[in-house]
Write a structure and sequence with these properties.
single chain, 184 residues, mainly alpha, 9 helices
């Protein structure tokens, strides 16, 4: 079923909408949550919470990209669960990803809430200047939190090549943000 049809089912308040959403995006939701939480039960619970959150927010929302909308919701729910579960201790994987981005994201920006501010807008503009593969690698690494090894395998590259591309992309992002006047 197409995304716009699923959204229409949500607007019609048809329970079939949840089943269709689960059929199309369930695996994606579990994958995102599992990479963040490293726990199948927690990932499954985040997946279920995502369906409830979509049910409660569509309507009034009418997402242009259902995939992006669902991905963002499950990611935020998983990060909230991680914070709750570990309280002040962060998972090593999440800490590594944040430390990589610390070099180019302003200190005042909370990465989880960055979508609403000018830094996020500048990052989106920068990502649109990248070639498709580099942009996908960046997003899959820092939004979907996929490992460098997984990305390398998926694209038939060496892990060192992926790592080098990401380092260069982060350096260019930093320069771009400085050029745009975003304080780092």
């Amino acid at each position: 079923m197409e995304d716009n049809q699923i959204v229409e089912l949500f607007w019609a308040r048809a329970e079939q909408a949840i089943a269709e959403l689960a059929a199309k995006y369930g695996r994606l939701c579990r994958g995102i949550a599992y990479r963040i939480l490293d726990s199948r039960p927690d990932a499954e619970e985040c997946e279920s919470d995502t369906y409830l959150r979509v049910w409660n927010t569509v309507p009034p929302e009418r997402p242009d990209s259902l995939c992006a909308y669902v991905s963002r919701i499950v990611r935020n729910l998983a990060l909230d669960r991680l914070r709750y579960r570990t309280r002040r201790k962060r998972s090593a994987q999440y800490e590594v990803l944040l430390s990589e981005l610390d070099q180019c994201i302003p200190d005042s920006v909370n990465v989880e809430q960055a979508a609403d501010d000018t830094a996020a807008q500048a990052i989106a503009i920068y990502l649109n200047t990248l070639d498709a593969r580099t942009r996908i690698l960046f997003v899959r690494r820092y939004f979907y939190m996929e490992s460098i090894e997984t990305l390398a395998k998926c694209y038939g590259l060496k892990a060192s090549t992926v790592s080098t591309k990401l380092v260069r992309t982060r350096k260019k992002l930093r320069a771009f943000l400085e050029q745009e006047g975003v304080a780092i």
